[in-house]
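Shipment paperwork, digital attachment
Item: protein structure file
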Amino acid sequence: MGYKTIDVKPVSGALGAEIEGVDLSKELSNETFDDIHQAFLDHVVIFFRDQHIGHEQHKAFGRRFGSLNIHPYVKGMDGHPEIMQIVKEPEDRINFGGGWHSDMSFLEEPALGSILYAKEVPPYGGDTLWANQYLAYETLSDGMKKMLEGLKAIHTAKGEYSERGASAQQRKSMNVTVAGDDTPSFEHPVLRTHPETGRKALYVNPAFTEKFVGMTKRESRPLLDFLFEHCTQEQFTCRFRWTKNAIAFWDNRAAQHFALNDYHGHRRHMERVTVNGDRPF
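Attachment content:
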């Protein structure tokens, strides 16, 4: 794939590329935006280093891809409700996003993608992993693909944002609301067709996928456990070492991610803008 205005350097064989030659604090020409958009579709997650952007520039970049999400459970910044501050203070034990998941799959229209900006990084650790769900689908046997075709699964925030859920645990610098008993559930296809690339991806994740439609949780568990293990195998992943002012932008329609919690005693401060998506098909 040729790009006219940017340098694109893959970081692994599975997914991920660093983008060089662009300053996101400046208004992007249509040609540069088109190149970035294409790199995003080609590589599923893209990275930019040494970007110095303010809150309005962060939101403006996100809005080039769609409308911005205001998270139903995590309070956004004062004056910027679309910006989620993800902070782990030195004394916090549990980080945010510390398990494989696809952002907001518990919504009727899950997120298109998330743009994460590193404001403060620990001296070591705090890397993020991504897993390519196109590859997760493509490496399934023909028999398994056929069995999953037409299956739907129920996604909900009930577990992850419940009182016992990891995402709802109190952190000193984050304001999280606990999901109540009236938390909605939505049905999404297990095999998702990407609306822009037309490629199929596996679309289940351990944080928000509860069971298959028409089956009990107990009946669903063995197959879900297999899929959760399958879709995050090492050969489907890339790993990003954060530096201050780096940005990652990933496609939630074709990737899962996992924020590592291996820097206790150090502060990590990120800011996230999430772009709204559409209903999976």
